[in-house]
Amino acid sequence: MIKKTILRLASAVFAVFGASVLSFVLLRFAPGDSVGLVLGPFATEAAKIQLAAEMGLDKSMPVQYGLYVRDLFSGNWGYSYSMGQPIYELFASRLPASLELSMAALFFTFITALLLALVKTYTKRGGIKKGIDLFCYAGYSMPQFFLGLMALVIFSGALGIFPGPEGRTRFPLFSLPRTTGFLILDSLIAGNLPLFLDALWHLVLPAFTLGLYSTAFLTRILQANLEQAYGEKFITVSLSRGISEWYALVRHALPNALVTTATAAAVLTGILITGTMLVETVFAWPGIGALITLSIQKKDFSVVQAFVFFSAVIFILSNLVVEVLITKIDPRLNGTRDIL
Q: How far apart are CA 261 and CA 324, in angstroms?
């Protein structure tokens, strides 16, 4: 167990190193002149040389990479000249909004996928099965930006049920104490019920748009694993004891199916946390995804570089945590026997 944990940690460290190299190379070989983008087209040659020295661009590539890694792990992620702020501060101010959206999408994904997979495995009605398949096909095939725009046109513009692209709320937030950065939690802590309900209502369409693809993907995987687990001998033995099919499915087949589905869920978690760019842009959501879109438009590649590294670390950590949890839940995957 200890040896495998050490190997997992070593592979995670190696993956983080690879991510740092990738983000470093991305900025260095990005099109355009970094110094020219900061100073503009009318800067003098002396000013360009001075700024290049301040940014460390006059040094060799290995030295630049060493300085980059040192700054990266010391919290100095660079400076956004287009925004006029350190990148770490930009990320810290926008991360709660992105996490709030991602957590809502995760909740929608896991609950919906669990219910759909259970119903499709249990039901004998072909119409219900085909309806769930149609939902999954739609989730697979529909791009997020198109789904978001259609959701706004139908549910906001035509029906007026949900708010338009107003961000997190229609209320001003000047007087709200920033306790956690999560608007829903902060409004609850402050006892502001109208703001809480408004923030929750603004979260519905973006969370649905962000989570639909992941819901379709996870539904298909979980349903396949449920069918496989439901065909095992221990389910037959359980049914022979007189318990209902639904109880056998939920009580015995589902835990086994969840273990084999956890790896896919870890990947989806990373996607939902770091893949919010299009959704945040469509709904004017003030998160990291919208920041990256704006940075690309302004050719501020230092922000994009930090985001590439941040995304890679999120993926690596989510997979590492799930791998460790799986071996705790199912000792067979760790090469040990579960003695009953």
A: 14
Tell me the DSSP string of 309-328. HHHHHHHHHHHHHHHHHHHH
pLDDT tens-digit map of 320-330: 777 777 776 66
* Amino acid letter for position 61: M
Buried-exposed string 263-289: b where 16+ CB fall within 10 A, e elsewhere: ebbbbbbbbbbbbbbbbbbbbebbbbb
Predicted pLDDT of residue 193: 92
Question: How far is it, in rounded angstroms, from Cα 91 to Cα 118?
Answer: 39
Spell out the long-range contacts of 191-200 with Cβ–Cβ below 8 A and sequence spacing 24 or more.
Answer: 195/169, 195/171, 198/169, 198/170, 198/171, 199/168, 199/169
Residue 116 CB coordination number (10 Å): 23
Helix then strand count (H, E) for the chain reads: 15, 2
Dihedral (CA of 61, 65, 68, 74) sign? negative
Residues of the chain under the 70 pLDDT cut: 1, 30-34, 36-37, 328-340
- DSSP state, residue 253: I
| pLDDT value of position 154 | 94
The per-residue pLDDT of the chain, averaged, comes to 84
Residue 73: which residues within 8 A CB-CB, separation 6 or more?
none
- Residue whose C-alpha is closest to residue 22's, from 290, 298, 310: 310
Q: In the numeric block, which tokens belong to residue 265?
A: 């869920």
Which pair of tokens denotes residue 254? 């589902």
Residue 262, classified by CB atoms within 10 Å of its CB into exposed (0-12), middle (13-18) or buried (19+), is middle
* Nearest of 286, 113, 292, 138 to residue 203 by alpha carbon: 286
Residue ranges with strand state E in 75-230: 79-80, 85-86
Task: Report d(CA 229, CA 222) in Å as an integer.
Answer: 10
From residue 118, give the alpha-carbon distance in Å to each of 21, 202, 232, 241, 302. Answer: 43, 29, 16, 22, 45
Q: What six digits make up the tokens of 137?
A: 């096909």
Residue 339: its pLDDT value, please?
A: 33
Determine how β-strand 79-80 pairs with β-strand 85-86. antiparallel
How many percent of the chain have pLDDT more than 70?
92
